[in-house]
Amino acid sequence: MKNSFISRSPTETKKFAKNLARQILLKTAKKKHAFVLGLEGELGAGKTSFVQGFAKGLGVKEKVLSPTFLIMRKFEIRSTKSETNTKYLYHIDCYRLKTPKELLALGWKEIVADPRNIVVVEWADKVKSIIPKDALWLTFSHAGKTKRTLSFK
User: Fold this and answer.
1) What pLDDT digit, counting tens, does each position of 75-109 carry?
2) Spatial contact of 87 and 58, defined as CB atoms under 8 Å apart
3) CB of 80 within 8 A of CB of 60?
4) What is the CATH number of domain 4-152?
5) For burial by CB atoms within 10 Å, which of 8, 119, 139, 151 has the most?
């Protein structure tokens, strides 16, 4: 996988995320805990568009909106991939959180411990101390009016 991707539109971001989700789904079959993606970047850099495409790639049927005020949303994964036991997508938005303890109070440890979960955390840099060491980090940057750079760590 390349270390960065240039998106020229929200549609391109969603398409990229959808393909990434399908690749990750194939790799989660033997995980001992949840697969975690940490998203960081400025407001309007494409994090929510990415999650929308990612959810679609996992087979989520519900409309995916940013859970800024709810903090967390849980979606059932309806993948057609029989080799995966992945069951839920958790979409977490830490923008309004002051400390990682607030996320811990929402059952973070239990969510991350379950290998049937995929967890996408927007504003993950705000809770970096509790994000698993093997999480996939994506940084979103503005590169023009509609152009965005997605960098992997």
Assistant:
1) 988 765 545 677 899 999 999 999 999 999 999 99
2) no
3) no
4) 3.40.50.300
5) 119
